[in-house]
Amino acid sequence: EGPGWGVIIKIVDVNDNAPEIEVTSFSNSIPEDSRPGTTVALISVNDLDSGLNGKVICSVNEDVPFILSTSLKDKMFSLVTKSPLDREKQSQYELTITAKDAGQPQLSSEKTISVTVSDVNDNRPEFSLGPYTFYVTEGNNPGASVFSVKASDRDENDNARISYHIIRNGSEDNKVTSFLNINTENGDVLALKSFDFETMKTFQFQVVASDSGTPSLSNNNHGTKKTPVGNEERMSGRMCSCCAFVDSSLSAITIFDL
């Protein structure tokens, strides 16, 4: 018998494994006031092949305000914001994470995650018109609605829930608000007393619309109330509360007798 021979067999890797993407940590909702660089998710990528076949490049679609940042650990990435967010412009993002190896032929895999941009109270209520000018007749019924103001808010939920009130500060405002009240929920302005043209012909007041966010944001608008002449003084046509026409150029509502 002769001396033995040792045989070493080397198995050469072929690129037969696609990268595997795993989301190890994920916040599916992020406030719209988050600063650029805020981490949304941690991504782990693994490829069972070796050499170039196991070297992985990871990316996210370019049409979103997010990027993948490399980590100190190999094949670990952080998904972070790259620019400011605005929920009022876009509240939902579909992020497609793509992992490609460096083998030939190149193999790749994708994973899609959904990120919701949550609302913060960053919009003030806005009045639909302003300033308002409206007319009522003397001898009106106390408690009746004589006008309505309307504001809207681009935020959502409590941040968009609006309440209305009339500013009361100073003797003149106290006099005005003794004649008027406002429905805090819908903005209807109510006459508390019957108006008398000979006593008061016109006055101004200020309405504030506030949202219910934290902190609460508000906006204000001025209203001018004019009392037209009733039966006691001559005019071209008596006025009553039976029909209304809106003149947008004057921001006024005038009520005519039919």
Strand content: 35-45%
**First-residue to last-residue Cα separation:** 129 Å
Task: Report the strand count.
Answer: 19
Oligomer: single chain
Principal-axis shape: rod-shaped
Going across the biggest sheet, name each strand in turn. Answer: 13-16-17-10-19-18
Pfam families: Cadherin (PF00028)
Organism: Astatotilapia calliptera
Protein name: Cadherin domain-containing protein
Keywords: Calcium, Glycoprotein, Membrane, Repeat, Transmembrane, Transmembrane helix
Written overview of the protein:
With 258 residues, the chain is mainly β. It has two domains: 20-118, Immunoglobulin-like (Sandwich), CATH 2.60.40; 126-256, Immunoglobulin-like (Sandwich), CATH 2.60.40.60. It contains one helix and 19 strands. A six-stranded mixed beta sheet has the order 13-16-17-10-19-18. The chain has a four-stranded antiparallel beta sheet with strand order 1-3-6-5, with no helix packed on it. The protein is rod-shaped, with a radius of gyration of 34 Å. The model is unreliable at 229-258 (pLDDT under 50).
What's this entry about, in short?
This protein has one helix and 19 strands.
Topology:
Layout: E1 20-26, E2 29-31, E3 39-46, E4 56-60, E5 66-70, E6 76-81, E7 92-101, E8 108-118, E9 126-127, E10 132-135, E11 145-148, E12 151-152, E13 162-166, H1 171-177, E14 180-182, E15 188-191, E16 202-211, E17 218-226, E18 244-247, E19 252-255
Parallel strand pairs: 2-8, 10-17, 10-19
Antiparallel strand pairs: 1-3, 3-6, 4-7, 5-6, 7-8, 9-12, 11-15, 13-16, 14-15, 16-17, 18-19
InterPro entries: Cadherin-like_dom, Cadherin-like_sf, Cadherin_CS, Protocadherin/Cadherin-CA
Membrane topology: Single-pass membrane protein
Keywords: Calcium, Glycoprotein, Membrane, Repeat, Transmembrane, Transmembrane helix
